[in-house]
UniProtKB/TrEMBL annotation:
<keyword id="KW-0547">Nucleotide-binding</keyword>
<dbReference type="GO" id="GO:0005525">
    <property type="term" value="F:GTP binding"/>
</dbReference>
<dbReference type="InterPro" id="IPR052705">
    <property type="entry name" value="Gliding_Motility_GTPase"/>
</dbReference>
<keyword id="KW-0675">Receptor</keyword>
<comment type="similarity">
    <text>Belongs to the GPN-loop GTPase family.</text>
</comment>
<dbReference type="Pfam" id="PF03029">
    <property type="entry name" value="ATP_bind_1"/>
</dbReference>
<dbReference type="GO" id="GO:0016787">
    <property type="term" value="F:hydrolase activity"/>
</dbReference>
<dbReference type="InterPro" id="IPR004130">
    <property type="entry name" value="Gpn"/>
</dbReference>
<dbReference type="InterPro" id="IPR027417">
    <property type="entry name" value="P-loop_NTPase"/>
</dbReference>
<keyword id="KW-0342">GTP-binding</keyword>
<protein>
    <submittedName>
        <fullName>Signal recognition particle receptor subunit beta, a GTPase</fullName>
    </submittedName>
</protein>
<feature type="region of interest" description="Disordered">
    <location>
        <begin position="1"/>
        <end position="20"/>
    </location>
</feature>
<keyword id="KW-0378">Hydrolase</keyword>
């Protein structure tokens, strides 16, 4: 082995030569005009589209922790209705989107399986709001996500993700089935579509703004 060539290669890597990228990529750096950054979590049951949403809307290359599903999950993970799913998030998904020149959202997608719920507390820490994704074929898998957000007092919106052959129900029926108050926004969403996912996040931001608007008292 030629150690001189090896050392030269290491020096080239350290100095950024030979095509090696040193530091963050230019497209990953925050805009200079960014004035506020908000942490948002994307939650929901197993297989409702959280990873897809983060990936479709993120302006940077998303960080995912997807692993191939193995025999270890048989009898543990409920895959009824999503039998073709072959990968699953085991820690979190991460992405970023600039809604305008000044406001940036950091997106954290949570794992859906109950055996990974111990990670949720850390992901919820510091979050100003959340998007709850639901699948009308398996509405019940997102009940626990809603309950955990309510327990922690994290404001949220509910997005009905579009799936082929999924039953379509009036929003009023879905709201009643999930026991959601009228104050919680509920919208349709296609997690595969960037514009639709962005509109969902804008709905959350508007909801958060409305909660923090102080109505002047009448003298």
């Amino acid at each position: 082995m030629d150690y001189r060539n090896s050392e030269a290669s290491e020096e080239a890597e350290a100095s950024g030569e030979a095509g090696v990228i040193v530091g963050p990529r230019s497209e990953d750096t925050l805009p200079a005009s960014a004035a506020a950054a908000v942490k948002v979590v994307i939650v929901g049951g197993f297989g409702v589209g959280k990873t897809t949403m983060v990936g479709s809307v993120s302006e940077i290359r998303p960080l995912t922790t997807e692993e191939t599903m193995t025999q270890a999950g048989v009898g543990v993970d409920d895959i009824a209705g999503i039998e073709r799913k072959t990968e699953t998030t085991v820690a979190m998904d991460f992405g970023r989107i600039s809604l305008n020149e000044r406001l940036v959202l950091y997106l954290f997608g949570t794992p859906g399986q109950e055996r990974f719920w111990f990670l949720w507390n850390g992901l919820f820490e510091g979050a100003l709001g959340a998007v709850v994704l639901i699948d009308t074929r398996r509405l019940e898998v997102s009940f626990d996500a809603v309950g955990r957000l309510e327990e922690r007092g994290v404001p949220f919106v509910v997005a009905v993700n579009v799936f082929p052959e999924a039953p379509v129900h009036p929003m009023a029926e879905l709201r009643a089935a999930m026991d959601l108050p009228d104050s919680v926004p509920m919208i349709d969403c296609d997690a595969r579509d960037r514009a639709s996912s962005r509109d969902t996040l804008l709905t959350l931001v508007r909801h958060l703004q409305s909660l923090h608007t102080v109505t002047p008292e009448t003298p």
